[in-house]
Amino acid sequence: MSKYIKRVAVIVAMAVAILFITGCIATRDISVRDAESSISFRDIPGITEGEIAAIEALQSSRQSFTFGNMYSTEVFLSDDGEFVGFTPLFCALLTNMFEIPFEFEILEWDDLYDGFIDMSIDFTGELTPTAARREIFYMSSSIAERSFIVMIEAGNESIKAAPDLNGLKIGFLAGTITDQSIRTMYGDFDFEVVDIGTMQEAAEKLMSAEIDAFITDSIDVIAFAEYDSIIGLDILRLVYAPVSLSTANPELEPIISAFNKYLEAGGVYVTKNLYSIGKQIYAAFELARLFTDEEKAYIAAFTARDEKIPIVLEHDNYPISFFNDAEDEFQGVAPDVLAEISFLTGLEFEIINDKDSLWIEILEMIQSGEAALISDLRQTYERRGNFLWLDEPYYVSHYVFLSKSELPHLEFFQVPHAITGVSRGTVYEEMYRTWFPGSENLVLFDSLSLALDGLENGEVDILLTANYSLLYQINFRESPGYKINLTVDSLTEGSYFGLNAERETLRSILNKTQSFVDTRGIARNWTDRIYDYSIVLAQQRAAYLTTFVTVLGALLIALIVLLIRNSRMRAQVEVALVSATAASKAKGDFLSNISHEIRTPMSAIIGMTHIGKSSNDYERKDYSLGRIEVASKHLLGIINDVLDISKIEAGKFELSSTDFDFGKMLDSVVNVIMFRADDKKQTLTVNIADDIPKILVGDDQRLAQAITNFAGNAIKFTPEFGKIDISAVLVGAENDVYTIQMKITDTGVGIESDQLKKLFDSFHQVDNSLSRDFEGTGLGLAITKKIVEKMGGEIFVESELGKGSTFTFTVELRSSTVSESELADRQQIKLLRREITELLMGRNVLVAEDVDVNREIVQALLEPTMINIDFAENGAQAVEMFSEMPEKYDIIFMDVQMPKMDGYEATRTIRALDKPRASDIPIIAMTANVFREDIERCIEAGMNSHIGKPVNNEELMAHLQKYINGVPYIEGVSDDRRKSSDRRRMRDRRRG
User: Fold this and answer.
1) Identity of the highest mean pLDDT range in 456-460, 640-644, 674-678
2) 3-state SS of the chain: helix, strand, coil percent to 5?
C-alpha cells in the first residue's frame, strides 16, 4: 500500500494547488498530446474484458468498416486528386484505435440514410444525436460541433438576420432534425418546411424561387460552390449540431461503447482538435484558389529558398503583441493571426527585433525595409505613402484615457488640464497634438510599459492609449486599481498589419488570407484570458479555507478508492503512452525533416512550371520541363522511400525472385550514380570477384536499391576529388545458396561513434557538425537494412570522423538453372515503338478516371499509338458505357477511388454482366494505391493487373501490348530475328 499512499499524497498536493488557484478540480486520464498517439482500444480507461473480446471477434470476422459521408468540407477532393479533410483524419484515428480499417464512402443523403438503416453502411457521422435517435441507434457522445448555414439567392435583401426567416418557405434535408434544432433555440420562429433530397435539388429550388432559403450544416457549403447565384449567410450562431459516431448495427455497439470511454477519458480533446485541423485544411484549399499566378510564384520562391519573412513585433502592446517573460516568447492576437496565416499559405515569419526594442526603432526597421511587416500600425495622414496596410483590421478598439480608480471621471474639455502620458512616436501622440495643439501637459514615454509605470508612480494623471491597455495593466501586469476614465466614443481604431511600401505582393497575399482567419475568436482568446491575480487571490484564500477542508476530505476518500481500483489499468496506460510518446517524437522529428525534403522538389516543380508557362522561348520551355522532370523523379523517390518504410513498419515488406545477371545489375547501379561522382570529380572504382556466378536468383531491383543507397551516401558525404570503392566477393556457397559480400568504402566526412548505433533507425538521420549540411530523408539506411535482412544478410559499419566510412553487407542469393543465353533470349522479346503503333491503331480503350488532369495525362501518353480512347468519370459510368457496347472495347483501365461507384465495385459489376466479353475483357487497375495488399485487392475484385500512379509510359505500353496482342513488351530496339518474328505475328493477326 506504500506506493498508493505516495501517489495519493502527490495527487492531494496537486489538488491543494488547484483549489487555491482556481477553486475547482478538473482531471482527465488522457492528455491531448498523449491521446494523439492513437491509443489502442485495449488501453482505453474503463474498457471491460467483454468489450475487448467483442471487438477482437469483430477483427476476426470483418476486413473493414464503411463510414458513410456526404461530400462536404469534412471530406473533399483536393487539387491532387486525393480526398482530404476531417473525415479521413477521423477514419485514420479509428483505424489505428480498433485495428480494423474504417473506409469512408461518399454518398448523397438519401443513399447514405438508406444504407445506414439497412446496415450496409456501418458507421456515419452525419446523424445529429437526439434522445429519440439514441433509443433506436447506437451513438457516441459529441466529438465536435457543426454550425448551420442559410443558403439564399444572391441579391435577396429580405434575409439579413435570423428573425427574417419567420414566415418563409425553407428547405431542409429530408430525415434530418435541422428544423427542430432551430425551433428549439429560436422558439418564436414559424416557417414552412420543405423536404429536400439532394443538394442539387436544393440549388434548383432556390434558383426557381420554390423555396426562400435552404438551411443545412455549414460543411455542405461546398456543394453550392458551382452556383454563383447562391450565397451562404452565417446568421444562426446560437444553433450547433453535435457530431456523433453512429451505427444502426447492434453487433457494432462495442465500438461505440469503447469510443465513448475514450472520449470521456480525454479523447474528445483529440477529436475536436482533428476537427479544427480539418477546417483549416479546407480553408487552405479554398484560399489557394484565390491566389494569382504572381502570388503563387511569390510563395513558391520563399518556400523553395526555405526563407522566412522578416517581421517586427511590439513587446508591450497587450493583448495585441507583447513579450511574455515567463514563457520567453512573443504572444498575443497578432502573433496568433500570423501563425494561422503561416499554416494556410506555407509562408514562415521570423521576428528580427528583440524583446526590449523601442517603438521608434521597430518603426524605422519597417520603413527602411529591413523588416517586411509590423504587428500593429495605425493609419495616419502623415504615414500614407510610406507604408502599406491590409484592407481590414484584425482587431478593433477605442481611444481611451486610463487613470487610477480613485480619479474622478473627466470630461473631454478637462483632458488638456491633466498631466497626460503617451508612448513616443505612436498614433496616440499624433492624436493628442491634433486634439489639444496648445497643451503643455503632455509627457512622452519610450514604451507603453514605461508609460504605465509613470501612471502607477504618479508622474502622469491619465494615459492616452487603446482600451485593451487596461487588460495589460490589471491582468498581465497584475496591477489592479485602474479604470478607463474616458472613452472617445466617436472614434474607433483598428489594429492593422503594416508593411513596407515595397511589399505589395505580400500585402495582397495577406489580405486574402486574413479573411480566412477567425480573428474575432483569436481576439476573444486573449481578451477573455485571466493571468495569476496573486494579490486578489491572496485576499480570497481565507474565504476558500472552510470549503477547501470539506472538499479535500471527500476528495481523499474518493481518490484512494479510485486509485486502488484503477492502479493496474493506469500502469498499463502509462507504459503504452510513454512508448507512444517516444514513437511520436521520433516520427515528429522525421516529419519535420521530410516536410523540407518534399518542399524542395515541389518548389522546383511549381517555380519551373510558372517559368515555362510565362516564356515564349521554346528552349526555355524545354529547359523548364527538363527541370520539372528531374524534380518530379526526386519527389517520387522520396514518396517511394516513405511507402517502403510504411510497409516495413506494417510488416508487409516483401521481396520478389527472378533470374538476373549480377554484373549487369551492378553496371546499372554505376550508370545511375556515376554522373554524381563525375560532378564532384570523384574516383569511383568497381571490383567483382571472378568466382561470383554470372546468373543468380533473387530480387535484383531491391539489391540494386541497397547498393545505390550506400554508394549514393558515399558520394554525398565525400568531398570533391575523393574516392569511392565498390567491391563484391563470394564468401560462402552451400546447397546452391551463395553468400556475397558487398563493401562500399569512401574517403568522406565519417560518422561520430555515438551515432553509429542509431544509424539504421527508421526515423533517424545522422546529426553531427560535419553532416548537417547534407540533406536527405533519413530513410534510406533503414530501408537498406531491411532489404539486407530479408536477403539473409547482415550489415557492418566502420567509420572514423574526418577519414571516411566502410559499409559492408552480405546477401544470400540462390543459384540459377537458367543459362546466360536463355536469359539473353528472354530479354530479346522487344518491339519498336512504331510496331506498337501499328498493332494498337484503331483499337478501343475505356479509361475510368474521375480526375481531369489524370485523364489528360493518359490521353497524352496514348495519343502516339493512334488508339481510340473513351473516358468515364466514375465507376457507374464505366459500367454503363461497357454495358451499352461490350464488344467495342479491347481493354479497360480502371481507377480505384471514384465517386458514385469505386473501381472495385465497377469491376465486380462488369464481371457479373450477362454481356459478351464481360468475363474476359482485360481490366487493369490504374491507381495510386500501390501496396501489395492493394494489388491483391484489385485482383480479388476481378482485375487482371495493376499499374501504379504516377503512370509510367513503358508500363502502360507493356500492358497494352500484353493484353491486346498477347506479346510481352520490353522497351528497346529489337534484334533482326525478333523483328521478323513479330512482323509475321502482326500479319497473321491481320488475316484473322
Assistant:
1) 456-460
2) 50, 20, 35
Looking at domain 828-991, what is its CATH homologous superfamily?
Response regulator (3.40.50.2300)
Structural domain boundaries in the chain: 31-143+246-289, 144-243, 658-819, 828-991
How far does CA 591 lie from the centroid of its chain? 11
> What CATH number was assigned to the domain covering residues 658-819?
3.30.565.10
The per-residue pLDDT for range 696-728, each reduced to its tens digit, is: 999 888 898 889 888 988 998 899 889 999 999
Instruction: Give dist(CA 776, CA 797) in Å, integer.
Output: 19
Average pLDDT of 241-265?
Answer: 93
Q: Which of 48-57, 105-114, 232-241 shows the lowest per-residue confidence on average (mean pLDDT)?
A: 232-241
Comparison of pLDDT for 482 and 157, the residue scoring more: 482
**Number of residues assigned to the chain:** 992
**Which is nearest to 856 in space by CA: 950, 781, 928?**
950
**144-243 in CATH: which number?**
3.40.190.10
What cell does 37 get?
A: 498517439
Instruction: Give the whole-angstrom CA distance, residue 660 versus residue 663.
Output: 9
Per the DSSP assignment, residues forming a β-bridge with 463 are: 402, 421
- Whether residue 319 has a cis bond before it, omega within 30° of 0: yes
- What phi and psi values does residue 914 have, to the nearest 5 degrees? -90, 65
Between CA 109 and CA 125 the distance in angstroms is 12
Distances 692 to 114, 240, 657, 705 between C-alpha atoms, Å:
66, 72, 18, 20
Whole-angstrom Cα distance, residue 753 to residue 802?
12
Mean pLDDT of 571-575: 55
970 has a pLDDT exceeding 50: no
Identify the sign of the CA torsion 756, 759, 760, 761.
positive
Instruction: Please name which of 788, 804, 888 lies closest in space to residue 844, comparing C-alpha atoms.
Output: 888
* pLDDT over 60 (residue 233): yes
* Residue 433 grid coordinates: 497634438
Q: What are the start-end ranges of the H helices in 43-82?
A: 49-61
pLDDT digit string, tens, across residues 618-662: 677 777 777 677 667 666 666 766 665 555 555 556 777 888 889
Indicate the average pLDDT of the chain: 80
Cell numbers 496591477 correspond to what residue? 479
**Which pLDDT score is estimated for 829?**
41
Q: Pick from 592, 599, 649, 593: which is nearest to 776 by CA?
A: 593
Rounded distance, CA 66 to CA 47, Å? 24
Q: What is the CATH number of domain 31-143+246-289?
A: 3.40.190.10
Based on its alpha-carbon atoms, the radius of gyration of the chain, rounded to whole angstroms, reads 34
Amino acid at 80: D
Q: Say if 31-143+246-289 and 144-243 have the same CATH topology.
A: yes
What is the 3-state secondary structure of 679-700? HCCCEEEEEECCCCCCEEEECH
Q: Taking the C-alpha atoms of 68, 71, 72 and 78 in order, what is their torsion angle to the nearest 10 degrees?
A: 120
Q: Measure Cα distances from 265 to 71, 142, 270, 422, 492 in Å.
A: 31, 13, 11, 51, 46
Tell which residue, 61, 91, 84, has the closest CA to residue 259.
Answer: 91
SS (H, E, C) 486-551: EEEEEEEEEECCEEECCCHHHHHHHHHHHCCCCHHHHHHHHHCCCCCCHHHHHHHHHHHHHHHHHH
Is 37 a residue whose pLDDT tops 50?
Answer: no
Residue 707: which of 726, 688, 731, 692 has the closest Cα? 726
Half-sphere exposure of 59 (CA within 13 A, CB side): 14
Q: Which of 926, 948, 945 is nearest to 847 (CA)?
A: 926
Mode of pairing for the β-strands spanning 169-173 and 891-894: unpaired
654-672 in b/e burial notation, b at 16+ Cβ within 10 A?
eeeeebbbbeebbeebbee
Cβ atoms 243, 142 nearer than 8 A: yes
Quick count: other Cβ atoms within 10 Å of Cβ 736? 11
Helix (H, G, I), strand (E, B) or coil at 221: helix
Is this model's pTM higher than 0.90 or not?
no
Model confidence at 585: pLDDT above 90: no
